[in-house]
Structure formats: structure tokens, C-alpha cells
Amino acid sequence: MKVLCVLYPDPLTGYPPAYVRDALPRLTAYPDGMSLPTPSAVDFTPGELLGCVSGGLGLRSYLDEQGHEFVVTSDKDGEDSVFERELPDADVVISQPFWPAYLSAERIAKAKKLKLALTAGIGSDHVDLEAAIQRGITVAEETYSNSISVAEHAVMQLLCLVRNFVSSHEWVRNGGWNIADAVSRAYDIEGMDVGVIAAGRIGRAVLKRLKPFDVNLHYMNRHRLPEDVERELGLTYHPDVRSLVRSVDAVSVHAPLQPETYHLFDDELLATMRRGSYIVNTARAEIMVRDAVVRALKSGRLAGYAGDVWYPQPPAPSHPWRTMPHNAMTPHVSGSTLSAQARYAAGTREILEDFFAGRPIRDEYLIVDGGKLAGTGAHAYTTSGAASPGSTGA
After folding, report:
1. Which of 40, 60, 248, 373 places its Cα 20 to 30 Å from the Cα of 258?
2. Interhelix angle for 165-173 vs 147-162, to 10°?
3. What positions does the domain D-isomer specific 2-hydroxyacid dehydrogenase catalytic occupy (predicted)?
4. Chain center to CA of 342
5. How far apart are CA 79 and CA 85, in angstroms?
6. CB of 381 within 8 A of CB of 374?
7. The dihedral of CA 306, 311, 315, 319: what is its sign?
8. Which of 310, 190, 181 is nearest to 250 (CA)?
9. Residues annotated in a binding site for substrate
10. From CA 257, how far away is CA 335, in angstroms rounded?
11. How far is CA 110 from CA 62, 87, 103, 135, in A?
């Protein structure tokens, strides 16, 4: 079969990089007891850079030995891209949330042989699920591989905003020692009201990691968490987003992108938030109205915005989130640490092994199973093919 893989470009300094650590901590299971990826073997050393083109998710030797054609590229956009040229006779497409190859209905129509659309990581909104269902294409993703990675990043970005870390660091880098300028926007997070939108695996991990900071924790989720979980973490439940955002000083967003969450944070919703609020968004960029966020930062309604997600990806150099005031943006790296890459590369191989052998792909990884919605795993989907709010396995 032909496997077409779209990964982000190699480091500017060349591949492989000089690694700063010699090994990764060894994990035996995910926090909820789900087993780690179980491929028959791996052809890489955990801790290597696997998510770029030369890294190839550690799949080159395996696929070559099995007699499959393996095409890896970072050129994914436009009619003359490598992805567009190679797609028509591809049997499998592998992509990432960090450098997504957008499988639109038009592209799926061109991909006459496509049988499997596989996400190396979490989040498959770059695939038109309706078109995949109509064509009988299996859509799968490496669930939970980088959930904790994203949760850690979200907590880090929240602290960076509240403590005004980015500006403070820039004073030092630029040769200054401007203490008054740095601390004039710096606060303690202790005692603040902090809310999480969507308490799936990532959202719950964020809540768990914020508890030791002695903040007042709030959450919104379609399905309320068990009483013992609320009691353990000291959670206040909100039935809708509007109730939550007006009750907190900071919001961390972990909802999937779907019709109900598309452009959820518009001028009207942002205006209901406390003056000087913070937003961290490691979910999907289009949950926000792009320019509404810029306006809220300029007016002071928001004291800071930190995100790891953009639309499209990569964004244009002129994208206003690159230069808007009081931002702590990153280029969708939260789920692609070297630790996470070892897991999502191994999980990608596990899915491929099962697919090539005609074995069932484990439920946790399935979204669309051969044209049928898969609701038995970590994802729950409505009949329209969109994920239910707060139900994401991420």
C-alpha cells in the first residue's frame, strides 16, 4: 500500500538535533489505566525527534520491510503541493494536529484509494468526517498519547500570563532590569477563580494540576463529573459556558471544535468576562473569533491570551495573534514534546499493524470505523459526525 505522511519540517539547524537528555522517564500506563501503545516493535529510540519529516514517526524501516511505499512531506497546502500530487493513489494518510493535512471533502473525492486517515496525536477536525463516512474511510487517532503533555503546557501558559513571565524575560534578554515595568502586570494565581471548559482527559488533568495552587476551581462539561471527583478537587460546576466565564478570573479551553463551539468566544461572550481575565486555549483556534480576541486585549477586557493553536496552521506571518499585546502564543507544540512523540509514534505503528493485518483497531483509537461512527471509545459523536461537547477523549 501507499502511505502518505505529512509531518512538520526538520529543524533549521539540521537533523538530527543534539539531544539535551539521554533518556525518557518510563511510563507503564496512562493515568486512567489505559494501556500504552503496544506495537510489535519500534524502530526508534524514545526521546528522538520523530514528528518532523526526517523523523518519519520512526516508520521508515517497518514500512519498507513490509513492502509498502512511504512518502513523507511537509508540503501540504495548495494544488501544486506534494500532498495534493501524491493523494490520488494513497491508501493511508497520516497527519498531525500540529501540521495538519486538511482532508476536505474535495480532497477525499480525489483520493479514490484512501482507506485510512490516521492522526498521529489527538484531534481529527482536519478530516471531513461526513465525507469519510460516505466513502467508508476509517478515521483513527492516537488517543491519550499527548493529553498530559497538553495539560502541562496549559498550566504553564496560565502561570506565564498571570505572572507576566514573557515580558519580564524580555527585559532581561534586551539588557534591561526593569522591575517596576515587569511587576506592574504580575499577580499571584493563589486565590483566583480558574475555570476549565470541557473536563475530558486534558481538562481533568489541568484541574488536578491546578489544585495545589490553592485556586478556586470551576468547570463546565456536558456531563457533570462524579460527586467524589468534584469533592476531591473542590470543583464548582457550571451548566454552560456563559455562567462559567463570568464567574472566573482565568479560563482554560479544552473543548473539541464543532458547530456548538465554533466561534464561541465572540465580542459578546468576551464582554461578559471579568475585566482583566486570562484565556488559555490549547484546544482549537476557531473556538475563538480571531479579531475579537485582539480587541479584548487592546481594550483591557482580557489581561492576557495564551494559545497553542492557530487557524490555519501554519498561520500567515501577518496573523494578528503573532503581535497582539499581552500574548504568550506558541506554535502548536504542546502535544509534540519528545516524550509525547515516543507515544504517538508507537501508537501510529500499532494502528498500522492492525490495519494491514485486518485486525480491529482498538476502540480508543477509532472515530469513524469504515464509514460508521465509532462511539465506543474515548470519543462520543453525534449523528452529524461532530463530537459532543466535553466528551472528547483528549
Report:
1. 248
2. 70
3. 61-362
4. 16
5. 8
6. yes
7. negative
8. 190
9. 122, 146
10. 17
11. 27, 7, 10, 11
Does position 167 have pLDDT exceeding 90, yes or no? yes
Per-residue pLDDT of 185-194, as tens digits, reads 999 999 999 9
Return d(Cα 328, Cα 106) in angstroms, integer. 35
Cα separation values, 154 from 46, 117, 234, 252, Å: 24, 28, 20, 7
Q: Sort residue 249 into left (φ over 0), alpha (ψ -120 to 50) or beta.
A: alpha
Contact 298, 267 (CB under 8 A): no
Query: What contacts 13, CB < 8 A, 6 or more positions away?
Result: none
What tens digit of pLDDT does each residue of 84-110 get?
999 999 999 999 999 999 999 999 999
Name the residues annotated as catalytic.
146, 284, 313, 332
The SS3 call for residue 208 is helix
Residue 380 CA to residue 390 CA, distance in Å, equals: 9
Nearest in space to 196 (alpha carbons), one of 122, 139, 247: 247
What CA–CA distance (Å, rounded) separates 32 from 35?
9
Give which of 261, 324, 335, 327 is closest to 298, Cα–Cα. Answer: 324
What is the rounded (10 degree) CA torsion for 172, 176, 179, 185? -70
* Three cell numbers, residue 343: 507515544
pTM of the shown model: 0.93
- Set of cell numbers at residue 250: 482565568
Looking at the chain, the number of H-run helices and the number of E-run strands are: 13, 13
Q: Tell me: the pLDDT tens digits for 252-299?
A: 999 999 999 999 999 999 999 999 999 999 999 999 999 999 999 999
Average confidence (pLDDT) over 171-197: 97
Binding site per annotation, positions? 122, 146-147, 201-202, 282, 308, 332-335
